[in-house]
Design a protein that fits this description.
723 residues; alpha+beta; Beta-Lactamase; 5-stranded antiparallel β-sheet; 23 helices; 25% strand; globular
Length: 723
Amino acid sequence: MVSGVPPRDGDATQLTVEQEVDRLRWQLAISAGGVGGFDWDLVTGHLAWDDRLIELFGYERAGFRESIEAFNDRVHPDDLPRVTQALTECAETCGEFESEYRVVLPGGATRWVRARGRALAGGSDGRAVRILGAAYDTTDTRDADARTSRVLETMPSAFFSLDRDWRFTYVNAEAERLLDSSRAELLGGDVWELFPAAVGTVFDTEYHRAVETGEPVAFEAYYPPPLDRWYEVRAWPVPDGLSVYFLDVTARRRSQAEAEVAHAEAEQARRRAEEAADRLRLLVRVGEDLSATLDTEEAVGRLAQHLVPALADWCLVTLVDEQGALRDIGSWHALEELRPVVAEYRRARLSALGERAPLRRALRTGRPVTVERGATAELLDVLSPGAARDLLRQLGPESLVMLPLRARGRTVGLVSLFRGPERAPVPPQDLLTALQVADRAAVALDNARLYTQQHRMAEGLQRSLLTAPVEPDHVQVAVRYQPAAAAAQVGGDWYDAFLTPDGSTVLVIGDVMGHDVDAAAAMSQVRSLLRGIAYSSGTGPAAVLASLDATMQGLAVETTATALVARLEQVVDERARDVTRLRWSSAGHLPPLLLAPDGTVSALAAHPPQLLLGVDPLTRRSDAAITVDRGSTLLLYTDGLVERRGSSLESGTTRLQDVVAELAHLGLEDLCDEVLARLVPADHDDDVALVAVRLHPLDRPRPAEAGPNRVPPHPPTPVTPTT
C-alpha cells in the first residue's frame, strides 16, 4: 500500500503477473547457466526444487518428494551437521546462507555443490518464512585443486606457502618432515611465532626482501635446536604471499670428511629440486596468466611461450570449437629466427593435415599421442603437398607429443610439443607437468565458454526487458542499448518511453548498481515498478520517484539505483504557441542534455541534487520544469556513455555536449549512432543506455525520418481509486 491507498484489484493482479514473469525469466536464466534453484517454505516445510537441482542431487522428477528430508538424505553425513547449522542460522537471523558440501549420488559417487540463499521475512514479527537460493556443481574446480596438490606432494623437496600475514597455507609431506611438525600444527599458524628463532635472522630479512621487491631469493641458513639443521632455501613472491622450497643441507655443512660426497649429493638434490621448482613455477606462471586476463583464449594461446623451451623446442596451441572445427591460436620457438617459420607453419598446417595425422588421432581419442623418433617423416606422410611440407622440413622435429585439453568430458583444444634431434623425447616427469598445464588450460577454456553462454543469456534477458518506445503525434523517440565488451558482464542500465492515460509522454533512464545477472534481474523489478506507478498514478516525476522508493522498501527490493523521470506535457495554449513543457526529477542520475533548434546544447541540472533510489524512502523529492520550443532534442543517458578511467565525469559530460553540438544537423537516429561511435570505445567496461527525443513542429506533417506514430491501440481510461 502506498500513501495509505489500497491497490486496485486489477493493479495487484497485473503486478502479480509481472512478478511471475520476472521470476520465470530468472528461473530460465539460472537454468541455462547450469544453476539449480530452491524455495523452502519454513511455515509449511515444503521445499520446492527445480529440475536442475533435482539432477544435481541425483533424483528423478517422477515420484520425487519435495522436502528437507530429501535434501538431508543426499548430503554427505560428514557435511550434514555443518550445512544444517548454516541453514538454521540463516532462518533464525533472517540473513544469508552459503555453504559448499558433498552430495552422495546413487551408487556411492560424490559430487561437490556450492549453494547460496537468503531468508525472507514475513508478518509483523519479522521472522523468516522462506529461504530462496541456488546451487551449482563445483566438482571440476575441486578436482583441479586436487591435481595440483598431488604434484606438490610428489615433489622431492620440501615446499610450503605463506599468505600476506605470514601464516602457513600449505605444507607438503617433505616440509612436515624437515620442520619436525605436523600439518595440523603448522597450517594457519604464524611462521614467526612457530619458529621464533628465525626472527632477525637471514630467514627474516630474505623473506621480507622477496615480498617487498617482488624478486625471488635464495640462501643457506642454520636454524638452532630443536631443529638444529642447515637449510638451503629458495623463496619467490606470488600474488597471495610467498612460496618457499628448501633442502636440509646439514650433512654437507657438518661433515668435512665427506665434503666431496656431501657436495655431490647436495648438487644432485639441488638439480632435482630445481627441476621440480621449474615445473612448479611453470604451473604457477600458467595459472597466473590464465587468471590475469578476461580474454581466456588469448591467455591459452600464450601457453606455447610458457612451454618453450622448458618442455619443447617449439609448440603449437589449437582451439576446438563446439562443432569440432580446429583453429591454431598460438605458436612459439626457442630460437627467435625460427619463430616466423613456426607462425607460417601454424597458418598452413591444419588445411594440409590428413585424417591419419597425430593431431587428429589425439582429437578423436581424447588421449595423448607420442612419436619418439622420426616425427618429421611421419608428419610429411600425412601432409598434403604445399607450403606446410616445406616449412616442416625447415623445422625438422625428431619427436612430438599431442596433448588434448579436456574439460567436462569434451576436448576443447590441443597442445603440440616438438623436440629436435638434440633433445631426448619428453620424459614421463615433463609429460606429467605438461598434462597438469593442459588440465588447467582446458578448465579455463571451458569456463570461458560457459561464461560466454551466461553473458549472452543475461544480455538477452536484459534486452528482452527493454521494449520499443512510443512515438506519439510529432514526437520522435530513438533508443539505444549497448552492452559492455564481451569480456565484461552485463549491467543494470535501462530506458523507457510510454504514454500515460492523460496523453503525456513519460521518459525514463536508469542504472541499477552492479554488473551481473543479479543487476539485470533487479533492473527488471525496478523498471516494472516505475512503469506501473507512473502509468497508474498520473503524477509528476518527483512523486513517481518517491512512490517507487517507498514501494522498493515495502517489497524488499534490496538494490540501489539512479533514475531520471521526465514528462512531456502540453496544454491548449502551449500547443497553440508550438511549445512543450518538460518536467523532470532526478534520483542521483546524470543531467539530461537539451539541444535547442539554434544548435546550442545545455545540461538540465536539477537543484538541489537528490538521493539515489534505495537509500532513504523518506527523502524529499522535487520537480524541475522548463518550456522548450518545437524542434528541440532531449538526450537522456547513463554513465557508461561519459565515464572513463583516468578522466573526470565532468570532462566526459563536457565532451558529450561538444559532440552533440557538432552533430546537431543530423537526423535523430544518425545522431544517436554517431554519439555512440565517437564516445564509446570498443573495449568499454560498462553498458550504455540512451534515449533521444526530438519535438518536431506541429504546423507541418510528421517528417518521414521520424517514421509512423507508435502508440498503444486503446489507452485505458484512468480509474479513480476509492477509499
